[in-house]
Each structure stands twice: as C-alpha cells, then as structure tokens.
Write a structure and sequence with these properties.
By secondary structure, the chain is mainly β. Helices cover 8% and strands 43% of the residues. The chain contains nine helices and 66 strands. It has a 15-stranded mixed beta sheet that branches. Strands 26, 27, 31, 34, 35, 36, 40, 45, 48, 51, 54, 58 and 64 form a 13-stranded mixed beta sheet that branches. The protein is elongated. The protein starts with a strand and ends in a 15-residue tail after the last helix.
C-alpha cells in the first residue's frame, strides 16, 4: 500500500510484502536518509532503535511506467523521559554468537551522552557516535578469551539513571537460509523450495544470533546452463534456466565455526491456470454432469466405469508466450467425498472412479501453489450414480432399459440402429415393434363391439420403456426410425407405425382417436427422467418444402412420452409427437377401464393414482397437445336416468362438476379428501417449465365422451352397435401449475387445423364434420362479446391470433381441475371460459349441424378453457417479443 502511515513504539518489527506476479521478487527496501534503521532482508525485519519519523521505500524495478515505488511512514515513539537501550526501556541484554569480536548498543536519552561501564576486560567501548537529539551509537569490542561463563556483564549511566544487571550472553554460532520464495520442510526433514524457470529469486543467509564478519560461500549442483547463482556475501540471486531438481549448498565460516546448509531447488514451469475440459461435460439444462458407476463392454456385459478427464495446464514462459498443454504430474487431484468417488491417474490420465451415489467435487490443483503463494486450481462438481450403467448407443440403451437398469446417457442415441449407428432394415424394425406392444389402457369398447376388429387389435406399440431412472446429461433419444419410417419413395409407411386406436369409428365416414402408439413408455412407479431430451421423431422430419416446421408431419408419430405411473421429469426437453406427454393414471393392465357401479370402487383409487411432476422442462411441437392429462378409468353410462352418471360423495349425493360451483374458477373438488381418495386418478404438477408450439392447445385435460350415441341401444334411439356402452364419466385429474410456467402458443387462427379431432376422408357425407375452429371462435365472440370478445387478438396487418391454452374437454361430466394458486402472479392472468358445443346450433350450415349432432356423441356438458386474451400481459405481442423465453426454466440439482 502506498502512503500508509502508522504510529508504533521503538523495537524490531518483521515486515511482509506481496509482489505480483510472484516471479518478480527483485526489490529494494531502504529508509529515509537521516534516520537510523537496520533492515535485514533475509530475516525480513526492520530494527527501529530511536524515536522519530522513519520513512521506508520499497522499489520494484521494471514496472510498465518505470520503477514502482511504495512509501510507508512510521511515527516511532517512546515513553516520555524514558531511556532507551536498543529500542527498549527495559533492556536486559542481547545474545551474541561465540567468537563475536564487536557489537553495538543504541541509546536514546537526554542530558548528556551515555557512559558505558564494563564489569571486566571482556568488553571495551571503542567509539561513541552522537546522532543528535539525544541518540547515540556505542561500538563495543568483545574479547571472547576473557569470557569464562558465556556472560559479559556491564552497566550504562544515561539520562541521570544507572542501568545495572546488563550483559551479553553467548551461544554457538548458527545460521539458516531463507528466500523470497517460501522454503518448506520436506517429509525427510530437509529444506526445499520451488522456483519457476527463467525467474531470479533472492536467497539470504541469516545468523541466529548477533554475528558480524561471517564469510559465506554459495555452491550448487548442475551446470551454469541449468542454474545460475549471483552471490554477494549473505545474499545470492538464483535463476534456474530449465526444469529440474538441484541442490543449493551454503557454507558459513565464523571464527573456527564452519557450518553447511543445503536446500533442494525444484525448478518448475510456472502454471498460471489449470483447466478441466468441459465440452464432453455439457449438460444442456441439467445442473451437473452425471457419471455412472458401470459401463458396457463390447459384449454388453457390465464392468466398472472409469471416467477420464481431460485437464490442461497453462503457463506463461514470457510476457508474450503462453503455453497450453495436457496437465502432467505437476497437477494433484482431490475429491470432496471419497465414499462417492476417487480420482486415480491411469496412464497419465486423471480418471474418476465412482464409489457411491451423490454429488462430489473434484479439484485439480497445481502442486506448487503454496510455494508460489498462488491458488491455481479448478473444481468440477459432478453427480455420481454407482448403480447406473453408462450407455452410448442404441443396443446398449435397449439392453439397459429392458434389464431395468438405471441409465446414464453419454451420447445422443437414435433408436433402431446398431452400435455403429447404422439403421436397421424395415423388417428388423418391424420385428422389434412386434416385441414391444402393450394392451391399451384407455377406452376400447369400440373394439369389443365392432365386427371389423377385435379386442386383440386394441394393442399399441412402444419403442422404448423406461423401467428405472434415466440421467440424460442433456443427450437425446430419437425414435424417428420407428415413428417416421419411410418407404422407398420417401413417404411415411402408414402400416409400419400406424396411427392411434379408435375411440369410435363410423363406417369410414368419421372417427375419433383413442390412445396412440408411443415412442417412450413409463408404467413403473418412481421412475425419474433427468436431463434427457426425448424426440418422438427427428426435427428434420417436420421440415416442409420451405424449410419450416409443419406439425401435420406429426399426425402419425404417436405420443412422445406415455406415462401411467408415478414419475418425475426434471430438466428434460420433450418434443415432436401427435401428443408430446400423455399422463393417464389407472388401468395399467388394460382390463378394467370402466366401473359399472361405484360400489365396486368403495376402497378408492389410491393404489392406482399416479403422481407426475414435470419441472424445469421444455415441451414443444405437438400436433394436438403438448401435455395431455386424463384418467384410464370411468363410470359407465348405462341407464336412461344416468346416461351421464355423476360421481358420488360418501353420502351418496352427486358432486357438482368442477367449475360449476364457481363458474369462472375452480370448484377445487380435489381438496375434498373423500373425492381425492376415491376419484382423483391422475395428479400432475407442472413447474418452472415452458410449453410451446402446439397444433391445438398446450394442455388438454380429457373427460370421457358421454353423448347419446354412446349409450346402450336399449336406452337410446341414437345408440349404434359399434359405439354402445362406450360413454361414461371419467375419474378426475388435477393439474397444478407452479412457479414460472409459460405457455407460448399464440397461433394464426387461419392456420389452426383441427382435422385430427374428427378424422374424416372428406366428401359430401362427411364435409360437415370438418370443424371450423375459426368460424366457431368468430361466432362465439360475436354472440357474447362481453365474455368471449377478449379471445381473438387482431394485429395491424389484419391477422387474427388465438392462444392455445388449457382445454378441459370431452362433453361428459368433467370433474378435473386446474390449480393456479402457486403460479407466478404475472403468469396467472389466464382467463377462464366455458363453451358448450350446442351453442353452434345457432349458427348456419355445417356449424349448425355440428352444434346439433356433436353433443349427441361428445356429451352435453361444457368445455372449459384457460387462455390468455388480447388484454393479457401475456398477449400475442408480449409473447412474440419476449427476450428470454426460458429464463424460468432453471436447472434443478439432482442431489
């Protein structure tokens, strides 16, 4: 620090200084002329025997603008009227080395100079120097031959006082060697120091007791090309020219004493930075990289995983030269918890050896940090899962998942390929799918009723089933080879991975889809998907001729992720499906979708309910819904007086539907313990996530259709053979939105395509079934503008946009609920709307037909919606210009 000032008593003080860069240790320390000080650079001490003002100046040559000078002012004080001897008012004596022939005393007093009175001939005053201001230096001659007991007494009279019982004592001569660099004690007790090549460092011989006239010689092993030593008495400058180990030997001759001290010198390359290569450790949105405890050998047997690290060291050999190289043995490694992992250097490569499960920090540190007073170090924190197996290709992934192992991805994987990444033939993929089927868990009454199909046709294909946790490290799993298989002309093979099962189908005129095939399946409880990207098909498969995405290409790709179990999905990206994530609880074996009487459900649904958490995720590019929620159980409609049966409370009374008790908000039935225990089949929490780019709605919450077409034929004139007994009331679902959930889904109303809702080949007979969503919204907005006038936002160029929010649909009684209570306030301005399809009967043409006939198939109950409107702070303009769409999608730590 420059200009520092302190007030201190007389005496001896040690000093310290830091010079950066540390290689530059050449400096000069001196005091202001006219004030007596003694500076010992070897001992790093300053002797201040007199009061007054001392100014010390440290000069370091070679700064950018010239020599660098720092000044320190010391106001040295003494007690009033005190007599000081060697800076002390309570002086007793000083220790000298045996063989000493001369020494000095420093006296400060008033009223005349001091008188030195020795007790015998061993001491003699040879000179008294008056510095002025009552300050004196006494030169004393010492005759060691006249000293018999290592003690030489004397007296001093100064300032009108006599000081007796003063003496010099004598010990054997000894010295040590110090340096401007830290000298350490080695394990064998020797002394050692590390120096950087090309940089001069000062060494000092420091006597342990007062001794003058010591002769020092400096020697070293090695040649002048290796090391140079520029010596001057008790001081030497050592400059290593190249890396290596040398010995510096210092010999002191004092009288008859000859003492040798040795210091091992390690000349090393000065490391300024150590870096752990991170490219292979990039984890996309996961918090940390995950390392598995096991890995597959070529024959798919499991062996211990040893995870290599690439570590670089950076050194500067001169001001203009920086060298980056793979780190060698100059770097040491440590871990925060050796029960989780250790680091071994194998073949020169630092390697992480998993030992347990948890978070662990690996540190790479330059082994000479303490010698250079530096902190050249880098840390890497990783997650370790001992029981997991690392997979890098499709065969390994299929093997691991079929064996129910915990999986850690180390590479992007495209399913339907061999270990080299070559795609299987169509026949091989067909054979694979024949072995990956499951019975539909949804409503398959149409298959039970129709003569054109059988219940055995109500099976679905899946590409990969996760039976245990998957830690993705930001890597992707792509099912494109199955979900978007192409024929020789480049067109999708419709018979290869056919579209969804039918909910109902009417003589090739129109059909409504039921459950779909899926790329990825979870039906084992407590599976965690962490940091993995799941693609129902490749992004390239969505490209149209203009190079943009066309969601129509997702019509036959199935569901990206099907969930029918407790599941936690964290920091994942999931995209590219007809529906992206479909979470339906219950009926996991596919044999009891319908409950014919609630008495059969007396114990409730606790054993079948699924809890699904989606946190820190991005769901995108779904042909229909990005998140589809529903139940795989329903109360069947079978009698005229219970065609749309109600769910009952413990007293046998019908519950009101969600939204009915509070028409513009939630009835919150899920907060009723009886209702939750007996009827809530699916409980989904969506937290801190982004949903973007759907064909229809970001979220769809489905209830079973329950129109008259779906009753028993004996109870309805409208029922058909194929459709009968397929109507009912779904058990309930709960969707909880928490934190920062963003629904980026404003869409050009003219481009909204609802053709997948009611699929029809077209023609005169079925043209009226093509839902005109734009016409419907225009009609409703015009009919009741006070309620629905906020739905459509029209831009300056005349285009109309509508937000694809959350739709609770089905037409039967809907007991599901959306909980926005934990959603960030600025995101919770979703408007709540309810629309009944029958309102369309007041329109014209096809719309009037749809409004009259569709309720007989879907049901007569309202569809409910949560949407952003044109007056919302999340309107089209705000979302289109949002600067950071994903700022709320924060990495969630695994441990």
């Amino acid at each position: 620090e420059n200009g520092y000032e302190a007030t201190i008593p007389t005496g001896t003080y040690s000093y310290g200084m830091d010079i950066y860069p540390i290689e530059h240790t050449q400096y000069e320390l001196k005091s202001r002329a006219g004030f007596y000080t003694e500076i010992d650079r070897g001992a790093k001490s300053v002797f201040l025997p007199f009061s007054g003002t001392a100014q010390l100046a440290v000069t370091v040559p070679g700064g950018v603008g010239g020599d660098i000078v720092k000044n320190v002012t010391l106001n040295v004080i003494k007690p009033k009227d005190a007599v000081l001897i060697n800076g002390s008012a309570d002086f007793r004596g000083i220790q000298l080395a045996l063989g000493t022939t001369e020494t000095q005393l420093f006296v400060e007093c008033s009223g005349g100079g001091p008188k030195f009175l020795p007790a015998n001939d061993s001491l003699r005053l040879t000179k008294s120097t008056n510095l002025g201001g009552g300050r004196y230096i006494l030169d004393i001659a010492v005759d060691s031959s006249a000293i018999s007991d290592n003690n030489a007494p004397f007296r001093i009279i100064a300032g009108g006082k006599e000081f007796s019982s003063l003496s010099f004592s004598f010990t054997e001569f000894a010295f040590s060697v110090t340096s401007d660099r830290s000298v350490e004690t080695a394990e064998d007790g020797g002394r050692q120091v590390a120096l950087s090549t090309g940089n001069a460092v000062s060494f000092y011989a420091v006597a342990s007791s007062g001794a003058k006239g010591v002769a020092y010689t400096w020697e070293y092993t090695g040649s002048a090309e290796d090391l140079s030593v520029d010596e001057s008495g008790a001081f030497a400058t050592v400059t290593p020219a190249k890396e290596g180990e040398f010995v510096l030997k210092v010999t002191a001759r004092y009288g008859e004493s000859v003492i040798v001290r040795e210091i091992r010198i390690f000349a090393v390359r000065r490391i300024s930075v150590v870096q752990i290569a991170r490219k292979e450790l990039q984890t996309d949105r996961a918090a940390r990289y995950t390392i598995a405890g096991m890995v597959y050998a070529d024959d798919l047997t499991v062996t211990e995983n040893a995870f290599p690290l690439t570590v670089y060291s950076v050194s500067s050999s001169s001001a203009s030269s920086t060298v980056v190289s793979l780190a060698g043995d100059e770097i040491e490694y440590s871990v925060s918890d050796e029960t989780i992992a250790t680091v071994e250097v194998r073949g020169g490569v630092p390697t992480i050896i998993p030992k347990g499960t948890g978070k662990v920090t690996i540190a790479a540190e330059w082994k000479f940090n303490s010698a250079f007073q530096s902190n050249v170090r880098e840390e890497l924190t990783v997650d370790v899962v001992k029981d997991a197996v690392a997979v890098k290709n499709a065969p390994e992934l299929v093997k691991a998942t079929e064996d129910g192992k915990v999986v850690v991805l180390t590479e992007n994987i495209k399913l339907g390929t061999d270990a080299a990444g070559t795609a299987f033939t169509l026949e091989q993929r067909n054979e694979y799918l024949r072995n990956h089927r499951f019975k539909s868990t949804y409503n398959i009454e149409w298959y039970k009723n129709t003569k054109d199909a059988t219940e055995n046709d109500a099976y679905l294909s899946y590409v990969l089933e996760f039976k245990n946790d998957v830690y993705g490290n930001g890597k992707s799993i792509d099912a494109d080879n199955f979900t978007h298989a192409l024929d020789n002309t480049g067109k999708p093979l419709l018979s290869f991975y056919r579209g969804p099962l039918y909910f109902v189908n009417y003589k090739q005129t129109a059909s409504v889809a039921g459950q779909d095939n899926c790329a990825f399946l979870v039906r084992t409880n407590d599976v965690k998907l962490y940091g993995v990207n799941l693609l129902g098909c490749s992004d390239d498969s969505l490209l149209n001729a203009e190079g943009g995405y066309d969601l129509v290409n997702l019509n036959l790709t199935g569901t990206t992720l099907e969930i029918n179990a407790d599941c936690e999905i964290v920091n994942c990206r999931i995209r590219n499906g007809r529906n992206v994530v479909r979470a339906y609880g219950g009926n996991r074996n596919g044999d009891h979708y319908f409950v014919d009487s609630l008495t059969a459900n007396a114990s409730g649904v606790d054993s079948e309910r699924i809890h699904v958490t989606i946190e820190g995720c991005i769901l995108s590019q779904g042909r229909e819904f990005l998140l589809k929620v529903g139940a795989n159980r329903a109360l069947r409609a079978s009698k005229v007086n219970s065609q749309e049966p109600a769910l009952l409370d413990q007293n046998g009374k019908a519950y009101a539907e969600s939204g009915k008790s509070n028409r513009y908000g939630d009835g919150k039935l899920y907060e009723d313990d009886w209702f939750y225990t007996h009827y809530v089949m699916t409980d989904v929490t969506l937290k801190d996530s982004v949903l973007e780019t759907s064909g229809l709605f970001t979220v769809g919450i489905e209830s079973n259709f329950s129109g008259e077409y779906l009753y028993e034929r004996s109870t309805s004139t409208y029922a058909t053979d194929d459709w009968e007994r397929s109507g009912g009331t779904s058990f309930a679902s709960v969707l909880r939105l928490e934190g920062d959930v963003r629904l980026y889904d404003w869409k050009d109303l003219a481009l909204v395509d609802s053709s997948t809702l009611i699929e029809s080949p077209g023609g005169v007979l079925s043209a009226w079934l093509n839902l005109d969503i734009k016409g419907m919204l225009d009609f409703v907005s015009t009919k009741d503008p006070t309620v629905y006038g906020n739905v459509i936002e029209t831009t300056s160029d005349g285009k109309q946009y509508v937000h694809g929010g959350i739709a609770l649909y089905g037409g039967g009684r809907n007991y599901s609920a959306v909980d926005l209570s934990a959603l960030n306030n600025e995101l919770a301005d979703l408007m709540y709307l309810h629309v009944n399809i029958s309102v369309l009967s007041e329109g014209d043409g096809a719309m009037e037909q749809q409004g009259s006939l569709l309720p007989r198939a879907a049901g007569t109950h309202d569809f409910n919606f949560y949407m952003y409107g044109k007056n919302s702070q999340n309107n089209y303009a705000a979302q289109r210009t949002a600067k950071d769409r994903y700022e709320g999608v924060k990495p969630v730590p695994l441990f």
